[in-house]
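Quick start: read one record
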Amino acid sequence: MKAHTFDQKLQQAQQRISQRLSHAEPDRVNGLRAHLWMQWIKKQNLLTESRPRRHGQGGQAC
């Protein structure tokens, strides 16, 4: 089995996403692109399961 570098995987993902977007309605392209990239990123385990840090900078509206 041939080992793929990250750059090769990224390029293949870009090609697959572009192919899928070519059939999408123009007003849905950006949302679909974001959705497909998030699926790919999760599949590559690029996001860790760490909890987001909260910085107590939230204010209350009066």
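Residues 55 and 61 are 18 Å apart (CA to CA).
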